[in-house]
Amino acid sequence: MKKAILLFSILLSILSSCKKDNNKNPEGCYLNNNAQSLVHNGVNREYVLYIPNSYNGTSSVPLMLNFHGFGGSASDFMQEADMRSLAEADTFILIYPQGSCLDGLSHWNACPLGGDNKSNTDDFGFVQSLITEISSQYNVDMERIYASGYSNGGMMAYGLANYKSNLIAAVASVSGAMLDCTGPTSHPMPVIHLHGTSDGVLPYNGSSDWNSAQSTLDHWINFNNTVLTPTVTIDNNIEHYIYDQGDSLISVEHYKYIGGDHVWFNSTFQGQNASELVWSFVSRYDINGLR
Questions:
Q1: 3-state secondary structure at position 261
Q2: 131-167 in b/e burial notation, b at 16+ Cβ within 10 A?
Q3: Residue 184: inside a domain, yes or no?
Q4: Within a domain: residue 19?
Q5: pTM (global) more than 0.85
Q6: What CATH number does residue 49 fall under?
Q7: CA 230, CA 288: separation in Å to the nearest integer?
Q8: Residue 22, domain member (yes or no)
């Protein structure tokens, strides 16, 4: 619980600088604009759904889940980490789920089976129920479901990679960290990790409480049996590391933002911002590996 308490206290100090929404429920957590909901474990859970105009239902399409950070709202995060134009161009369904309330702030319980759990919220079960709900209404390609997230949402993406890999084809973390509860990942898992070297919340080089970016990468490099020496490209103060030739031809990739803060990055690498880099990476894969 030490990491959970520390994250709670650190993020309380930075929430005042973040975009806020005065529309809150009685517990003090966000209500979202134009949200849909489902009941999981007796709790009403919200999510913001975007169906592109290019979707016509005649063929199956990918599903992209993007998880907000601690204390955030799905509707605000959709503005900050906007993938709607990408969904239109490449025709995929986009979901921004809403974390449940914990002491007045929304959160993701990304490590329910280990010492880093924040609560008893069944977020993995919620995501599975959400996928079942959406796939019953739309023509979803069940081999192309992707998970991405920012900060605590990045932790959630890694949690799904570890414990719900039967559902998830590839994951992305932006300014996030992987907690100390790795699970029985059932297939080679493509991973992209974006992180700033000046991140003051989840330090790039880690701490006594948080894994470093490199230790997280090393876990997936070893798990996927990729090359150990990356190909490196530099552009606009961003270093891009590619660890490829892994099992099922998957890669582990890392964008190191020199001087980058704890944000969903708008600065571009070869003309692509964080949303574009994430989608460009994960969309190359299905649950069997490189498409």
A1: coil
A2: bebbbeeeebbeebbbbbbbbbbbbbbbbbbbbbbeb
A3: yes
A4: no
A5: yes
A6: 3.40.50.1820
A7: 23
A8: no
